[in-house]
Amino acid sequence: MRYFPFLLLLLFFTSCEKEPASPVDTTPYVLELPPHFPYPDIPEDNELTEARVALGKMLFFEPALSVDSSITCGSCHKQSLAFADDLSISPGVRGRLGFRNSPTLVNLAYLTKVNKDGGVPKLDIQALVPIEDHAEMNLPILHAAERLNADPEYVDAFQRAYGEPANPFTITRALGAFQRTLISANSTYDQYLMGEVSLNAAAERGRQLFFSDATNCSNCHGGFNFTENGFFNNGLYETYEDWGRRRVTGLPEDDGVFRVPTLRNIALTAPYMHDGSLPDLQAVLEHYNTGGTTHPNKDHRIRPLGLSTEQLADLEAFLHTLTDASFLTDQRFKP
Amino acid sequence: MTKFKFSTLALLAVFALAFSACDNDDETPEIQEGTVNMMFEYTVDGAAFDTAQVYDINGTSVRFTLANFYVGGIELMPEEGDAIPVEGNYLLVTPEAGMQEVTTVPAGHYHMVNFFVGVDPAINSQSEDDFTSRDADDPLAIQFPAMHWNWNSGYRFLRVDGEVDTDGDGVMDDTMAFHLGTDNMLQNVSLVAHKDVETGSNMLHMEFDLAKLFEGVDLSTDYVTHTMNNPELAAAVRDNIPAAISMMH
Q1: Which of B127, B133, B229 has the CB atom closest to A121's CB atom?
Q2: What is the DSSP string of A262-284?
Q3: What is the pTM of this model?
């Protein structure tokens, strides 16, 4: 009986305790890569874990990240199209149109500067752009955090992933973590490199052309990811409505300069160019074959190539070998 | 009992001696310090700032909805000696911000205060710490209304939004937006303060006159710049910043 006051006190304190927060799950997520793919640099403050990637996927397909809950990241980045879209300009909330073509998200883990003009210095804050942009999801990131923190499922998921609630840091990092897992490395061409298949005759002729000095394709679209991540003017226009990198740097020499995109899954990501103005691969190849316009910033490697119709067809056949069919149906990337 | 008391006292005496021997015999006089705060009083050509008020600026009717800016690189110049920099302290100045603590400095006379409107290039680059990785109470953390750009990652150094009557018919017919950012929009400000900092709280009370900010700008035609889309207009406003900020007392 003399212990009764202590028991009462104990009861008082235990009844006031909050539900214990979920512990942070640090189970690492390891990227599966073929030998010809380097392991990408992963930021120290956003190491890949199962919990972070899972949370990022939830957010990628979360309509609450758009102001009227009408669209998700996945609305404009469709897995069946290598996480690109088949429209020149994809509509944002209320059908608003921006001014750039939705890019593929494959192999973003290797990007240093993000977006077509390189205006974002790292993938881990890129998600701010679509979430906040007036013509995309149009939701201030602080409002997005409020919404997510009102949902117990997200409260738990953020706690397990980062040990803290939804906030600008954890939202953008989780989306960055998921996007880093979107590795496409199993195209026919990759299988060819590993000696598993051979290319058909047309694709083989196209491969040789692609890597030859006659076309210079691989000068810009080189390396394991078919881009050196350079920024160039490819002579698409005489006058650019969209300034490209000049919009970021303010420099006239950056007028009409855009990041060279990867060519992986390129056959799936029509229409092409920064504004989606070229409808198909034939139009793109024709553009490079004619050498483009005479814009003063046009890169010197863009010049008339004089390729025959057959050679253009061979190049197109080679580009089709960059399609990674297994990536398009990979269950890990589905909602 | 007497013996116990004696030994206890002796022990205490030894301890007292040991500790007092470590004392500095030269008594250093305590440095008198004062806290310095800053406050920006918003005005429009001398009139009090009010978001409900329509103002005439250079013949154009204007109503403001937002007028925020960052202040950094603050340093106080004492009468003698080197300037005292305030490391890493940024202020987000808004019409509602009121008095904001800046630093603590030795009491004395300070004849100048220097600062810049903007954010220094290293922080503005977002390459290391970025606006998402800062504590929520850090003025450089993401704000609402936004003081950052997402598409060209960096801060809006100064953001003035509002409405403008472009044709003079008495109806506000378009949205005004002056968003100044990128490294070359950083603007130094140097003010004669003649401030005697005393112990306790001290205030540098400044005026921010929006009419002077738009001196020489025809707001009926030039009322939107996101810096890169109209760098000339942004530069004109940037160049007006030093004249728009003055020391009150």
Answers
A1: B127
A2: P-TTGGGS-SBTTTT-B-SHHHH
A3: 0.89
Please classify residue B78 by burial: count the beta carbons closer than 10 Å to its beta carbon, then call 0-12 exposed, 13-18 middle and 19+ buried: middle
Domain range list for chain B? 33-247
Beta carbons of B74 and B159 less than 8 angstroms apart: no
Tell me the per-residue pLDDT of A245-304, one tens digit each, with 9 for 90 and over. Answer: 999 999 999 999 999 999 999 999 999 999 999 999 999 999 999 999 999 999 999 999
Q: Do B144 and A45 touch (CB under 8 A)?
A: no
A83 and A130: one domain?
A: yes
User: Which helix (H) or strand (E) is B111 found in, with range?
Assistant: strand B108-117
Nearest to B174 by CA among B230, B223, B228: B223
Q: Which residues of A are catalytic?
A: 136
Structure tokens at A227: 């881009």
Q: Which among A183, A207, A232 is the end of a domain?
A: A183
Residue B67 · residue B229 · CB < 8 Å: no
What residue of A is the nearest CA neighbor of B226? A247
Residue of A nearest to B124 (CA): A121
Q: Which residues of A touch B229 (CB under 8 A)?
A: 247
Q: How far is B39 from chain A (nearest CA, A)?
A: 27
Q: Per the CB < 8 Å rule, is B153 touching A120?
A: yes
A100: in domain: yes
Q: Are residues A113 and A207 in the same domain?
A: no
Q: Hey, is the C-beta of B151 within 8 angstroms of any chain A C-beta?
A: yes
Domain total in chain A: 2
Judge if ipTM > 0.90.
Answer: no
Residue A14 lies in a domain: no
CB atoms within 10 A of CB A133: 17
CA distances from B14 to A7, B2, B8, B19, B22 (A): 48, 18, 10, 9, 13
Separation in Å, CA A29 to CA A25, A47, A332: 11, 9, 12
Who contacts A103 (Cβ-Cβ below 8 Å, separation ≥6)?
A: A84, A116, A261, A269
State how far the Cα of B169 lies from the Cα of A189, in Å rounded to an integer.
66
| Structural domain contains residue A8 | no
Element (H, E) at B188: strand B187-197
Nearest to A129 by CA among A113, A111, A141, A147: A141
- Which residue in chain B is spatially nearest to A126 when comparing CA positions? B150
- State the Cα–Cα distance between residues A150 and B26, nearest whole angstrom: 61
Neighbours of B143 (CB within 10 A): 20
Question: For residue A124, what are the contacts with CB-CB under 8 A and spacing of at least 6?
Answer: A43, A45, A46, A172, A173, A176, B130, B132
Bridge partners (DSSP) listed for residue B165:
none
Is B146 within 8 Å of A132 when comparing Cβ atoms? yes
**Which pLDDT band holds residue B4 (cuts at 50, 70, 90)?**
very low
What is the rounded distance in angstroms from the CA atom of residue B191 to the CA atom of residue B116?
11
pLDDT of residue A113: 93
Give the whole-angstrom CA distance, residue B101 versus residue B247: 17
Return the ∠ at Cα A83 (arms to A167 and A181), rounded to 5°.
60
